[in-house]
Amino acid sequence: MGIFDKLLGRTTKEEETHMEKLKIGIILGSTRQGRVSPQVGEWVKGIADKRGDADYEIVDIADYKLPFLGETDGSEPGIAAWNEKLASLDGFVFIVQEYNHSITGALKNALDFAREAWNNKAAGIVSYGSTGGARAAEHLRGILGELMVADVRTHPTLSLFTDFENGSVFKPQDLHLDNVNLMLDQVLAWSGALKTLR
Ligand SMILES: Cc1cc2nc3c(=O)[nH]c(=O)nc-3n(C[C@H](O)[C@H](O)[C@H](O)COP(=O)(O)O)c2cc1C
């Protein structure tokens, strides 16, 4: 690019890549009927969209109808679609619920169904459960290390007792708002940095 292009404010392809908004998927970790994860995911997306600093979208594992890994010949279209969706994203926010002190089987299966599409990206975790889903979130961090996903420190934890009515209607306390924004700050910083590695 010449001096005139620069003076005219023209950008190179490389600069355009850096200027593009990051794409962040908000992944719903539960798939059971009657699940509350869509309420939590929409709440996070609402906070994120107000920032206007990235393209945020809900990614619902249930939409992909993934079989159990290895039980089929792998030709189900949802498997390829799942990988394509992950590949199109720069970072993730996992909506994590605690099942028997860990993550759901559905989320573990979905994590196992991709490899390169996860690598060198960043993630935040928003969890819920009787103790804020903390045990499930810590299990997820171990898995993310193996998948080369950099999980950020700030971790909003929602209580089934004080952030939900009857454990089913999501009514988050105001105190979580700052934590969600801080978590998103960290996810965007690391997603942008790791994009340069890919
Ligand atoms: C199979 C199962 C196991 C659960 N185990 C735990 C648990 O160990 N700790 C906990 O805090 N909550 C546990 N719960 C309660 C869930 O965290 C709660 O039902 C939550 O709403 C589940 O998320 P979902 O509605 O998005 O599926 C469990 C729920 C299910 C269905």
From TrEMBL:
It holds the Pfam family FMN_red. One of its GO terms (cellular component) is cytosol. It comes from the Bacteria. SUPFAM superfamilies: Flavoproteins. Residues 23-154 form the NADPH-dependent FMN reductase-like domain. Signal peptide: none annotated. GO terms for molecular function: FMN binding; oxidoreductase activity. PANTHER family: CHROMATE REDUCTASE, NAD(P)H-DEPENDENT FMN REDUCTASE LOT6. Belongs to the azoreductase type 2 family. This is NAD(P)H-dependent FMN reductase. It comes from Bacillus oleivorans. The lineage of its organism: Bacteria, Bacillati, Bacillota, Bacilli, Bacillales.
